[in-house]
Amino acid sequence: MKNKSLMLLAAMFSIAGETFAQGQAEVKETVAIIKNKLVESKEKLKKYEWLETTTTYVKGDQKSKKQNHCYYSVDGKLTKVETGGSTKDKSKGGLRGKIGANKKEDMADYIKKSIEKVQTYLPPDAEKVQKIYAAGKTTLHILEPNKKIKIDFMDYNQAGDALSVTVDKVRQIILAIDVNTYIDDPEDKVIFNIKYNTLPDKTQYAEMTTLQADAKKVKIDIENSGYKKAAPQM
Known about the structure:
By secondary structure, the protein is α+β, with helices and mostly antiparallel strands.
């Protein structure tokens, strides 16, 4: 009886060890896909130009819309030029207008920080992803066996945040990225979701980013569209 119990226990440990090894292999393979797509797409995007539309909502009301023509300059830096499609919220006059202007200035500062925060996560840095994986700070979620996988990368930019990447393993592409972070106060949580898309030459890009800051009742949509090969620069 004792021998049978020991054999059963050994079998359980063996199965657990095998499952753990499979999970580690799954994570390693998925991280490799993420790194490859990020590096590949980062280079390919330098040959494109596109339109970036940022729409800001406060308490459900649209407050502004800003459009930028985006492209990479000769020195490899991302350049954004505001177009005529931008609109701004009109200010009220008088004392109420001044009080409102002060509140609006505070909100504008918060919104500016929020948009800047998004940019620190997009596109994710391939080397940073590798370092977090090497440090053992990843969590695997199998959404669809052998097809759809999500990996959480903890403390990506700052302590307590998390960047999650969803991957289609069959097509070996990034489907989405989700981020849990904060702007100034760790208690003031900010969540943004990024839907990825793929151009005909397999270049991947963040098609739609939605930021939600419930504490401030702020929602920001950033849409990238109209991709085309950039004109030669002189």
